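Hey team,

Sharing the acylglycerol lipase run so nobody has to redo it. Sequence (337 residues) first:
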Amino acid sequence: MDLDVVNMFVIAGGTLAIPILAFVASFLLWPSALIRIYYWYWRRALGMQVRYVHHGDYQFCYSFRGRPGHKPSILMLHGFSAHKDMWLSVVKFLPKNLHLVCVDMPGHEGTTRSSLDDLSIDGQVKRIHQFVECLKLNKKPFHLIGTSMGGHVAGVYAAYYPSDVCSLSLVCPAGLQYSTDNQFVQRLKELQESATVEKIPLIPSTPEEMSEMLQLCSYVRFKVPQQILQGLVDVRIPHNNFYRKLFLEIINEKSRYSLHQNMDKIKVPTQIIWGKQDQVLDVSGADMLAKSIANCQVELLENCGHSVVMERPRKTAKLLVDFLASVHNADNNKKLD
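Structure output:
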């Protein structure tokens, strides 16, 4: 073989080896950095741009795609201890002609975290309203979707600010009062009574606890490598004290049942999406909401747990698009009448 050809293969092999070794090193030594790169990459790939907006000295961080048009904008509220990027798996399957806005909830990721902030559900609703006003998102009524804690906030927002919202999607929302407690809620009450706040199942501090949390929140048993579990924990640990404070705030008497207390005030067309195998918030909550909200559609997903957005992103996107189409077409038909 010609020496130049041999040299070419050696150089090519070395060139390829550098990024491969860099990836392996990142995976083994800095998994948290790899996770951040992953989200950055998917935001770029999906056309989601990150921006900041201020209300006084309070900063909101959000990502968006598209511009307001004749279809309603969609504001997406994530769950407890998550961030705006949790919606990327759903965004992937949404039409590119929709105006999407994903905001970091109060104290999360790029949004201001202040010891003086009111982290109750009412306090979070007011903050999200400030964000909406800053973006002038309510210049025309928008569609609001939230999951878990974000669903709690979204439902109460629709009750407090009915003129802002044209329709609502609640994905396994918190904030309902059940006649009997499931196993997860019973465990939380035991922790409250014993004042063992360090052991809240939704606030892991080790890879083992992270694995347990994933099993609690998901029906699908993901096989997550130890390095990625460690990376997920490393990303969360600096924020765990805040998460504990927030968690205790949203489960106290002032906030725990805010959605339940306000669900009969929700007047806009509403969609409920819930995983039938949800171990965190019982699926019977869907029926509760359907009985209290006049114009309500319920979608129960088989073989799906609490993390609907992560487990069934394509199905979630389809249900959302179909619901928006039905509501939008019905409104247009009314205008023609």
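Residues 1-29 have pLDDT under 50 and may be disordered.

Ping me if you want the raw files.
A.
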